[in-house]
Amino acid sequence: MACLQSLTKSFSGWVIFCCCCYLPLLLTSPLPPKGPGLASTAHHTCRLRKINFQQPYIRNRTYTLAKMARVSDHDTDNRLIGQQLYVNVRENNRCYLMKRIAELVVKDVLLTTAKDRYPYIEEVAQFLASLTLEMSRCKFSGHREHIEKNLEEMKSKMKQLGENGKIKAIGELDLLFDYMENACTDAPKKGGKKKKN
Fold it and tell me: Max Cα separation, the chain?
């Protein structure tokens, strides 16, 4: 008992105590079902909590980083993140698409040499990586040709623009943030009413 009291007097003691008590509970919790029923639960794994996007700190960091990069982006003719990504992509697959784009931007842009050019880049990369990890079970439903085609067009455009493609991707992080929020949460959609099926 005395050992427990001394442990709980410090923060690290609380961390150890919580890990010992709660970790077994997390490890023994049931996993989602596999097999034919998975298609019906796939939509729910493509959802993020609205609270992820309501953190003023990370929203501010993301928008500030995008604004700083846009100063160096002199190409006003091209856009990487926009409605063109959703061409022929069903609404229920848009979150999956945004997850894939976030993975691409983190891996091919934010964690490259660009991380030395701008402040906050590592924080934003960690935030986006945590969102994609949270959606690790998010899968597409139906056919994925259009998703892959739109992703390839974005990658191709970014590669064609060279170093400016990376700058443009960083400058559009605020758009990525907003598109992920709209596609992956139950937030009211911007720019119109939600369609009934």
Answer: 69
Q: Count CA atoms closer than 13 A to 156's CA, side-chain side.
A: 6
Give the model confidence (pLDDT) of 167-191 as tens digits: 999 999 999 999 999 999 975 445 4
In terms of Cβ atoms closer than 10 Å to its own Cβ (0-12, 13-18, 19+), residue 109 is buried
Long-range contacts of 51-58 (CB under 8 A, 24+ apart): 52/131, 52/134, 52/185, 53/177, 53/180, 53/181, 53/185, 53/187, 58/123, 58/124, 58/127
Tokens found for residue 112: 């490259």
CA 17 to the chain's CA centroid: 31
Number of Cβ atoms within 10 Å of the Cβ of 21: 9
The 10 Å Cβ neighbour count of residue 100 is 21
Place 44 in a pLDDT band, splitting at 50, 70 and 90.
low
Stretch 151-170: mean pLDDT:
94
Q: How many CA atoms lie within 13 A of 4 on its CB side?
A: 5
The stretches of 28-144 forming alpha helices (DSSP H) are 38-45, 56-72, 94-105, 121-134
Scored b (16 or more CB within 10 A) or e, 58-85 reads: bbebbbbbbebbbeebeeeeeebbeeeb
Q: What is the mean pLDDT of residues 103-110?
A: 95
